[in-house]
Amino acid sequence: MIKFIGTDLDGTLLNSYSKVSAKNVQAIRDAVNSGIVFAICSGRTLHSVNKYFVKDLKVSGYRVVLNGAVVVNANGKMVIDRPLDRDIVAEILKRAEFSKFKIVLDGLNDTYIYDPNHNWNTYFEGMSRHHYKAHSVQDLMKLNNQEDLNIYKFCFSCPPKRLAELQKKLESFTALPITISRSGSNYFEINGQDITKLSALQHISELEKIPMTDFMCFGDYGNDLEMVKEAGYGVAMENAIKNVKDVAWKTTLTNNEDGVAKMIKRVLAKEFD
């Protein structure tokens, strides 16, 4: 019996315009009203995920953010808080300083962007008051030295023609105590060791006393793969990459066809009990 539903945002719950459709909103509200525990599981910052709870969904639920480095429960209490070690951040920045890749550092709510090509957008949205321009890698290093600021996640990205070069650079980091995941065709994310959306959900499973076999999780990309694979009911979007589809229990419609809502309706109709 499905007692928990967790969903990725980009490419999953959100359509191509970064909106939650009315059908997805209603399905999630119906699920929560039926007693199912709900979570958004995203690589985004807490501020960015909170927006969708407050403005669109208007339900209670867990915020699994920054790929599981932070988890906030339905009462607003932080139950996981695992920033990157400052020495690790410094080491990665030092190794990447002259590579001229786009580097995004995520704090809890704010995002710091260094881009040698002066494109200041993040992978999920344009500039906002929570986005800050860094004019050099040295600027990012100074941020890392601020004792009142924790860095939870890196994002490295590049133009498609430099993808092999970026992948080679990331391979040079693999001896460090970090977790590398892929969130887009040219986007790679770095968190602390053993920090994933799945590890966060396993912690929620213990807190809620709901076994992972009763979890339904939706995803589309590499940073969702473990979550989709290990949930009792792992659902891949039709637009998901092949690796996620291969490990999924079922595939639903695309993110532009209300695929999440379609599957939740089947859950509430008790098709899988």
Poorly predicted spans:
none
- How many separate helices? 10
Please tell me how large the radius of gyration is: 18 Å
* Share of residues in helices: 25-40%
Q: What is the 3D shape?
A: globular
Mean pLDDT: 95
- Can you summarize the main beta sheet? 8 strands, mixed
What's the order of the H and E elements? Answer: EHHEHEEEHEEEHEHEEHEHEHEH
In short, what is this structure?
This protein has helices at residues 9-13, 22-33, 46-57, 86-96, 137-144, 163-171, 197-208, 225-230, 242-247, 259-268, and strands at residues 4-7, 37-41, 62-65, 70-72, 78-81, 102-106, 111-114, 131-134, 153-157, 178-184, 187-192, 215-219, 233-237, 250-252. With 273 residues, it is an alpha/beta fold.
List the helices and strands and how they pair.
Blueprint: E1 4-7, H1 9-13, H2 22-33, E2 37-41, H3 46-57, E3 62-65, E4 70-72, E5 78-81, H4 86-96, E6 102-106, E7 111-114, E8 131-134, H5 137-144, E9 153-157, H6 163-171, E10 178-184, E11 187-192, H7 197-208, E12 215-219, H8 225-230, E13 233-237, H9 242-247, E14 250-252, H10 259-268
Parallel strand pairs: 1-2, 1-12, 2-3, 7-8, 12-13, 13-14
Antiparallel strand pairs: 3-4, 4-5, 6-7, 6-9, 9-11, 10-11
Helix pairs in contact: 2-10, 4-5
